[in-house]
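=== RUN LOG ===
request id: a7f3
mode: sequence -> structure
chains: 1
length: 115
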Amino acid sequence: MVDLVLMLDTELAGHEAVIRTVNDCCCGIGGILTLTKDRIQQINPQTKVFLYGKELNPQTWAIARSDMLILGPEGKDAENIKLPVCFWFAGRNNTVDHANVTRLFAGETELSLVA
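=== RESULT ===
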């Protein structure tokens, strides 16, 4: 899934200092966010990646934040995982380079990817 989103990003592999923001408005435990960041840094290790996510379930939100703290002890990504109290997005200039959205319907998963 991550590769499908990133294959449209032609600037990623060709430039040295690239900044990318990734948003997942239904992030769960943050797995897709983590995979996206890892894949972007595999393609271009000099890329700065900023992760943003929202999760409705407080327990799942806590797992996502703790995982982000383990992966990045400085806590920058963890601060950007929010409970959806209101509409929130604080990306670079309120824009996003890559968005991942996973919605659950009656036990079935429908995946929508926007690049």
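=== NOTES ===
Helices lie at 2-6, 11-14, 31-43, 58-71, 76-79.
The first strand starts at residue 19 and ends at 24.
=== END ===
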